[in-house]
């Protein structure tokens, strides 16, 4: 590590979490475009993507200008602002099936309110999630859930027959199915063709609300999110990371009119800065060229990685939806947690650590999603593939008997 890093660690005795994670995660000084810079000003091409929030890259000038304008106004959190109306108008152009919006301070707060809404709307208390649902503490066991009073049952992801059976047998007690269309807890496990439509139909048939977790997929895999990509309309959808661009925000869109507020405390408003950032990001995403760039560069990276893996006889599977992808060292399709368990996680860790030494940031553990931004250029991909070639060659030589 560099001199500034070493000096920082000496001063960080009172911050044990920082010290323990510093060996795996860059201690960042700044970020710009597709790069994150550490405290010694070493730049890394980044594919961690702040959990999927960096669709337009870091420090986008248009977003920064919008944020500065709001900060200069001095309005703190806790006041309603005109930006709420402006953002709802813009969101409606992206997601026309939504009739009303809730704006929240965070994704967790948004999910907590959705659980209360579903429970009050249906008079039921139970929730169904897929076992690969993104780790928002909603898909956790009841003792770890956002609201322990809401019992949560898991069912095996993308086993459509079992999901429908659970909906059919428990429909009288299940308030909602909370569906992460990427099964993000396992990286990226895309649904089989037609699965989302079939599951959405089963929810309607059994009087169970469908709540789509669009925290990552919203505005990233399609301008209208996973719902538009699959051609379905949920009862509600939750948006967050990809909309906020790194600023904390949670947004809920409802299909049928304004939910009643009689049983709710007033929703705390997001900070105006987060609203301004979201409006600016959506203004950028109106341009089709952004999505074309994301697809083109992801194609380039994925095709290059698969070619290198084949060259060095490394069995590699890449699951991908749009500009979201995950790498698995295995020779079998990765379609659920059982397939994930038999993948070569140790080889992935070695590769990710070696790539970090080459100034490339991939998720440090297998089974986590990686992301491109619209600021990743062809040269960035070329540099990444050159680093991967070097790393895979070294791994090949290390593993020769």
Topology:
Layout: H1 3-11, H2 16-21, E1 28-32, E2 35-38, E3 43-46, H3 49-52, H4 61-73, H5 83-94, E4 100-104, H6 107-122, E5 126-130, E6 152-155, H7 160-170, E7 174-179, H8 195-205, E8 209-213, H9 225-230, E9 236-239, H10 241-244, E10 250-254, H11 272-285, H12 288-311, E11 317-321, E12 324-328, H13 337-341, H14 345-357, E13 360-361, E14 370-371, H15 378-399
Parallel strand pairs: 3-13, 5-6, 5-7, 7-8, 8-9
Antiparallel strand pairs: 1-2, 2-3, 4-10, 9-10, 11-12, 12-14
Description:
The longest helix is centred in the last third of the chain and has 24 residues, at 288-311. This protein is 42% helix and 15% strand. The chain is α/β, with parallel strands linked by helices. Helix 4 (61-73) runs antiparallel to helix 11 (272-285) and helix 14 (345-357) packs across helix 15. It is globular. Strands 4-10-9-8-7-5-6 form a seven-stranded mixed sheet, sandwiched between helices.
Short account of what is shown:
The protein is an alpha/beta fold and 401 residues long. 42% of the residues lie in helices and 15% in strands.
Taken from the alpha-carbon principal axes, the silhouette is globular
Instruction: Going across the biggest sheet, name each strand in turn.
Output: 4-10-9-8-7-5-6
Give the termini separation: 32 Å
Task: Name the helix and strand elements from N-terminus to C-terminus, one letter apiece.
Answer: HHEEEHHHEHEEHEHEHEHEHHEEHHEEH
Mean of residue pLDDT?
90
Q: Quick one: biggest sheet?
A: 7 strands, mixed
Number of helices in the DSSP assignment = 15
Q: Output the radius of gyration.
A: 22 Å
**Helical proportion, percent range:** 40-55%
Structural class: alpha/beta
């Amino acid at each position: 590590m560099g001199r500034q890093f070493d000096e920082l660690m000496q001063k960080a005795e009172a911050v044990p979490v920082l010290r323990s994670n510093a060996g795996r995660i860059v201690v960042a000084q700044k970020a710009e475009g597709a790069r994150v810079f550490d405290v010694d000003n070493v730049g890394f091409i980044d594919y961690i993507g702040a959990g999927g929030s960096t669709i337009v890259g870091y420090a986008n000038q248009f977003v920064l200008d919008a944020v500065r304008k709001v900060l200069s106004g001095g309005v703190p959190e806790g006041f309603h602002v005109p930006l709420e109306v402006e953002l709802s108008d813009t969101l409606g152009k992206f997601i026309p099936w939504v009739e009303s919006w809730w704006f929240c301070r965070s994704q967790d707060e948004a999910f907590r309110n959705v659980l209360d809404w579903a429970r009050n709307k249906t008079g039921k208390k139970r929730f169904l999630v897929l076992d690969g649902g993104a780790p928002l503490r909603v898909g956790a066991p009841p003792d770890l859930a956002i609201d322990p009073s809401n019992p949560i049952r898991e069912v095996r992801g993308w086993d459509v027959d079992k999901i429908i059976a659970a909906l059919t047998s428990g429909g009288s007690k299940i308030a909602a199915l909370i569906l992460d269309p990427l099964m993000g807890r396992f990286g990226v496990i895309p649904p089989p063709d037609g699965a989302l439509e079939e599951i959405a139909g089963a929810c309607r048939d059994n009087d169970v609300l469908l709540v789509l977790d669009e925290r990552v997929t919203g505005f990233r895999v399609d301008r209208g999110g996973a719902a538009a990509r699959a051609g379905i309309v949920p009862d509600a959808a939750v948006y967050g990371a990809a909309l906020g661009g790194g600023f904390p925000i949670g947004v809920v869109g409802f299909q049928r009119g304004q939910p009643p507020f009689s049983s709710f405390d007033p929703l705390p408003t997001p900070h105006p800065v987060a609203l301004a950032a979201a409006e600016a990001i959506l203004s950028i995403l109106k341009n089709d060229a952004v999505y074309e760039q994301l697809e083109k560069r992801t194609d380039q990276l994925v095709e290059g990685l698969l070619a290198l893996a084949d060259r060095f006889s490394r069995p590699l599977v890449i699951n991908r939806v749009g500009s979201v992808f995950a790498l698995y060292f295995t020779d079998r399709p990765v379609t659920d947690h059982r397939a994930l368990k038999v993948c070569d996680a140790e080889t992935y860790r070695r590769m990710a650590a070696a790539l970090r030494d080459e100034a490339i940031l991939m998720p440090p553990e297998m089974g986590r999603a990686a992301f491109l931004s619209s600021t990743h250029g062809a040269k960035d991909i070329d540099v990444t593939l050159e680093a991967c070639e070097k790393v895979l060659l070294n791994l090949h030589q290390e593993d020769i008997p």
